[in-house]
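User: structure tokens for this one?
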Amino acid sequence: MTRIVSSVVDGVAVSDEAQPTIQSLNPAHLDEVVGEVRLAPARVFVSAAVVAKNAQQAWADVPAPVRGRAIAHIGRVVEQNAERLAKLVVREIGKPYAEALGEVREIVDTCDFFLGEGRRLYGQTVPSEMPDKQLFTFRNPVGTVAVITAGNFPVAVPSWYIVPALLAGNTIVWKPAEYSAVVSQAFHELFVHGGGLPDGVFNIVHADGAATYEGLEQSLQLGYIDKVGFTGSSEVGREIGALTGRHLQTACLELGGKNPLVITPSADLDLAVEGALFSGFGTAGQRCTSLGTVIVHESLHDEFLRRFTAAVDAAAVGDPAQDVLMGPLLDAKFAERYEKFLGWVQPQHTVTGPTGRITAGNPRPGFVGDPADGLYYHPVVVDGVRPGDELFDQETFGPIVGVTTYSTLDEAIELANAPGYGLSSSIYTTDPADAFAFRRGIGAGMVSINNSTSGAEAHLPFGGNGKSGNGSRQSGIWVLDQFTRWQSVNWDYSGKLQKAQMDVADLEPDTGFELGD
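Assistant:
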């Protein structure tokens, strides 16, 4: 029986059968329908925002340590269901099982970090410049948070928003990607039941992009949404940022990337090849942190390219339920867009091996499974990309990696910054001077040294600059600044009006004092 997925508002499924439905297909086996998704109109998003707004004060009144215990319980329930949830991720978006299990682990790690933050939502006592007066600071929840996420990381990335937002006393309206709706529904159920969350605290709305934007716009106009978190493309991120800006809000934006990997003359070349392979083709290149361009020193170019293309040719590609590096593309719309990216290959570029969809007529040796079953594409390495080429300048969401050369480290840093994104970056070197010069010069929010461009830990800030975001950060203690607002309190118990900068206690110095001879 096909699973029907509906929005859940105030603890109740929105089961209006007049709403249109779409099928969520297994991209590795396109004949398998994972679920039927009932798409909500804008009014459902608005109603979810109203419910969340009404539930927020009561949730904020729950003591923060108790909210921390709810996060602890969620982590344990997710841990108990880790294999089931990971297998569902494999089925619905085609992520290899090992990666899917690692993604589920990220939820647990995030919960483990934040379960104690309920006891550490610290403010400060601050000394006053006047007697008989005390100054304090408090962290208050923002209010009601709209979270809009992509489906390439359907459970890890939402947890980066939702766990700290709930911990801080906010309520949630979550709009996940349509093509990962079944996984999202399971995530929602684990959180609500695992945390014992009251109705209205965490609502989920399944809608297309147009209805989501309309519902968000109306909710902002009516004052129901106090903060927006968005993970997706830079193009849509600009629209979300502009919309929230009109309401004097700053969205938390986690957008695309064109992530560089620099290889210096002192690099361990085998390690660099391994890092480039995983960051370029893990999740079929469909990560915001996926490798965009390898920037290799001219003295190592030929040898690196030989080893890298050999590693790509030998990589296991196919059924994500098996032991493979990469499976299918996430959804038909991404396959269509990837075909456009392949059209950016120009005569001045060099491509070795086949490109396009893997088929019986366009085979890949050693393919795991039957390529006719799903949206499988050849991993592609394009040598000779330069600034001005679309392949160099633009994010390419899929299994395609560019290669270019440099002669000096300053040139490498200039090339790494040239596309204008600023999410993740990597340098392979054994020279500390090169590592620190790269760190100073790169515009990315995240820097890896002798590691790939992909990979995040739950207690380290995650986020980008430039076209990759507006400087907001997720994960660790830093994300609390997205979901709380500082409140300052001054308490004067002197019994009289003391005016700051005017009635200041002072001592009389002898500024002309000199020591005797």
